């Protein structure tokens, strides 16, 4: 599934971000090769979403480099960055559809922004809606959808403009196990069919193992360990084992939760 050699599609070097005294990212390094699918796992509050928001330009890091195909996106003018962002697809947690737009207008949003004609955009939207099994709901409004349908519409919107890098923030969180499996299979198929480079965040380890060829553990502000997904059950790194086995006690420092809770779980 992973492909390519040479220049990483995404290269992050020394990325740091703090909010006042809260040091969230401290010297994050991460490489994702073209066509690779990497999932970042890590405790709640470890900075996974902040990391993706930094890459997407939604949060400005304090220092570091974000290189996409060798180009430092942090040094681009706003207009240049907006142009580059056309290559990106993003599935937000909870789908984040626009309430006032119909399903097909949501799906075709990036195309309509890029001045694609209405008819052509609608045709492409229906094509990708078909791909997620929802071609007959193009004219419904987001309020008329179930959570699982909204997630699939969000997935269709993510890929409608044929991005070559996609980000998935918690693609299966809040879904039942069967719908989670549907979403995971769609993501795997997308990856196989298009060779898109993917960066996902999830708490769902089954999903991580299924949709990605590499897994990176974000811990104490850094990418502590990066392994092939096939080694998730066998890797002996103590922090990775603590996270995978879901143990409150271990080397992952929980002190940011406060002294009382730390004392309680150490007892
Ligand atoms: N805009 C912001 N302003 C101030 N602090 C923020 C902001 N965004 C995130 N943080 C802080 O950064 C830390 C990491 O947050 P982040 O949302 O990245 O966690 P996460 O790893 O995605 O957690 P979860 O798994 O619960 O989604 C938290 O302590 C959070 O309070
Ligand atoms: Mg998050």
Automatic annotation (TrEMBL):
Domain ABC transporter: start-end pairs: 10-245
Alphabetical keyword list: ATP-binding, Nucleotide-binding, Transport
Any GO molecular function: ATP binding
Pfam family, one: ABC_tran
Protein origin, superkingdom: Bacteria
InterPro entries: AAA+_ATPase (IPR003593), ABC_transporter-like_ATP-bd (IPR003439), ABC_transporter-like_CS (IPR017871), P-loop_NTPase (IPR027417)
Gene3D superfamilies: P-loop containing nucleotide triphosphate hydrolases (3.40.50.300)
PANTHER family: INTERMEMBRANE PHOSPHOLIPID TRANSPORT SYSTEM ATP-BINDING PROTEIN MLAF, PROTEIN TRIGALACTOSYLDIACYLGLYCEROL 3, CHLOROPLASTIC
The protein, known as: ABC transporter component
């Amino acid at each position: 599934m992973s492909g390519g050699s040479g220049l990483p599609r995404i290269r992050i070097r020394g990325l740091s971000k703090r909010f006042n005294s809260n040091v969230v990212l401290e010297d994050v390094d991460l490489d994702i090769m073209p066509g690779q699918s990497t999932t970042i796992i890590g405790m709640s509050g470890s900075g996974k979403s902040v990391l993706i928001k930094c890459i997407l330009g939604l949060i400005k890091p304090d220092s570091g480099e974000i290189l996409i195909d060798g180009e430092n996106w942090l040094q681009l003018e706003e207009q240049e960055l907006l142009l580059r962002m056309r290559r990106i697809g993003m599935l937000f947690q909870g789908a984040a559809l626009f309430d006032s737009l119909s399903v097909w207008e949501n799906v075709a949003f990036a195309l309509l922004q890029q001045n694609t004609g209405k008819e052509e955009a609608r045709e492409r939207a229906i094509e990708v809606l078909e791909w997620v099994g929802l071609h007959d709901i193009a004219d419904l409004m987001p309020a008329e959808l179930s959570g699982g349908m909204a997630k699939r519409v969000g997935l269709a919107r993510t890929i409608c403009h044929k991005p070559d890098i996609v980000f998935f923030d918690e693609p299966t969180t809040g879904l039942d196990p069967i719908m989670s499996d549907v979403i995971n299979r769609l993501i795997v198929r997308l990856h196989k069919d298009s060779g898109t480079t993917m960066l996902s965040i999830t708490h769902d380890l089954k999903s991580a193992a299924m949709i990605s060829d590499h897994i990176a553990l974000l811990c104490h502000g850094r990418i502590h360990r990066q392994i092939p997904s096939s080694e998730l059950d066998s890797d002996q790194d103590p922090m990775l084992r603590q996270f995978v086995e879901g143990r409150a006690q271990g080397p992952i420092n929980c002190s940011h939760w406060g002294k009382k809770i730390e004392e309680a779980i150490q007892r």
